[in-house]
Design a protein that fits this description.
By secondary structure, the protein is an alpha/beta fold. The protein is 42% helix and 14% strand. The chain contains 14 helices and ten strands. Strands 3-2-1-4-5-7-6 form a seven-stranded mixed β-sheet, sandwiched between helices. A three-stranded antiparallel β-sheet has the order 8-10-9. α11 crosses α12. The chain is globular and about 65 Å long. The protein starts with 13 loop residues before the first helix and ends with a helix. About 4% of the residues have low confidence.
Length: 424
């Protein structure tokens, strides 16, 4: 059982503010971009909670309502078809009251529905009725027990006929590892990274617990991580990094673009949990990657040190980013481009392969260097700027930009692959 959550809404914790700021900063441009498709937009908060905290700070439902409202007010597409769906079992009456009062005080009001239900029971049925629409799911559970991987991957089912699907998931990766240790009777109380937190759950040391954890992870790939931790080959933090990478890799079998960001209060502290983003769309991937990298007064990976100007020096994991390494990584991707490929697809594939190690502008700078050194061909439409000069931009805003490797570069790649195969 999870710890008692009665006091959860007493005050909003700092790491919850970071998490909700990440959501808010993404939703505003997301709503704006998707409205421009002239298709309806549907937002689903799968563990919506009460809507606000006792200290007056908004929860995710009010944040989403305000983001939708801003896009309608500022929007230029003419499409205002946004509706929000809040799934909540425990506090649905409170949420209905809070959201209704909030919308009565705002203009224009946003259409919303409170669903007295559960994510694992009701979310798929809600999505199933949204054929032809753009759908975003915010999945922020109080633990890991209800985070079934089959359901998460099931939202990509082509039979749903969605126009687009994106997910932002709060993965309590440390909680998962604690559960795994409990299921296999592995002691972890001496590891400071695996100590209890507000969302901890108790798991029995039974095969049933192991099966349940397999269902959350989508496989048994996590079990060797527990074995390595037990043998002392990994500490808690290293185990979390490995498990999170494996989870992301597993989701990547279903969603082309999967990103991950740890949420922590202070630099060098272990994360409280990890936000995982999944999408099939390159533009959404780039938007979220930039969102994850951006530190402002309202969005910080390290809350207590966000005023330090370290944006271009560290990735979302807190590791130093080497511009030379990024250049090599971008070059390796472009050498595989046998045909002209949209620039957004190239940049998103970079994030899918390497993780969120820099902002998209850094990747574009690397592409510019490759063009300068005649290593890629670039096709732009229109080819010129508004002033009539040849465009050198790698931004897709207002133009189509496509890239492919120079023939000599792809020939070299083939030779290297043949050489590697001979050495196998």
């Amino acid at each position: 059982m999870a710890k008692d959550q009665n006091a959860f809404f007493t005050e909003k914790k700092p790491w919850s503010e970071v998490k909700d700021d990440l959501l808010a900063c993404y939703l505003r441009p997301y709503f704006q971009k998707l409205l421009a498709t002239n298709k309806p937009v549907r937002y689903i908060d799968c563990f919506a909670g009460r809507g606000e905290f006792d200290d007056g700070k908004p929860g995710s439902p009010l944040i989403a309502l305000d983001a939708a409202r801003r896009c309608i007010v500022d929007g230029k597409s003419g499409n205002t078809d946004i509706s929000l769906h809040f799934i909540e079992s425990r506090w649905s009456d409170d949420l209905q009251r809070v959201a209704t009062g909030h919308e009565r005080a705002c203009f224009p009001s946003i259409t919303f529905t409170v669903i007295n239900g559960r994510f694992e029971r009701d979310a798929y049925a809600v999505v199933r009725g949204m054929a032809g629409k753009n759908v975003f799911l915010y999945i922020d559970p109080y633990g890991i027990r209800d985070l079934g991987c089959d359901l998460i991957t099931g939202f990509s089912d082509p039979s749903l006929r969605l126009n687009s699907i994106e997910l932002l998931i709060n993965l309590n990766s440390f909680g998962f590892l604690r559960a795994g240790c409990q299921a296999f009777k592995v002691r972890y109380d001496n590891d400071e990274d695996l100590r209890d937190d507000e969302f901890d759950e108790e798991w029995d040391a039974t095969s049933r617990s192991v099966d349940s954890l397999n269902a959350v992870a989508g496989g048994d790939y996590w079990q060797p991580v527990i074995d390595d931790f037990k043998r002392g080959q990994l500490d808690g933090r290293q185990a979390e990094i490995r498990f999170s990478a494996l989870y992301r890799e597993h989701l990547s079998q279903t969603y082309r673009y999967v990103l991950s960001m740890p949420i922590r209060r202070q630099e060098r502290q272990r994360p409280k949990y990890r936000m995982v983003f999944a999408s099939q769309h390159p533009a959404g991937c780039i938007l979220m990657a930039d969102n994850m990298m951006t530190r402002t007064d309202n969005l910080a990976i390290h809350i207590d040190s966000y005023k330090q100007a370290m944006l271009f020096d560290q990735d979302v994991e807190g590791e130093i980013t080497d511009p030379g390494t990024v250049q090599d990584q971008v070059e390796a991707i472009t050498r595989e481009l046998m045909r002209f490929t949209d620039v957004d697809e190239v940049i998103a594939d970079f994030y899918a392969r390497e993780g969120v190690v820099c902002k998209a502008s850094v990747v574009r700078q690397a592409l510019a260097q490759l063009e300068l050194h005649n290593m890629i061909e670039v096709r732009r439409d229109p080819p010129n700027t508004d002033s009539g000069k040849p465009s050198l931009s790698f931004s897709s805003k207002g133009r189509k930009v496509e890239i492919r490797a120079k023939p000599w570069s792809t020939d070299r790649l083939r030779r290297e692959r043949n050489r590697d195969e001979r050495h196998l």
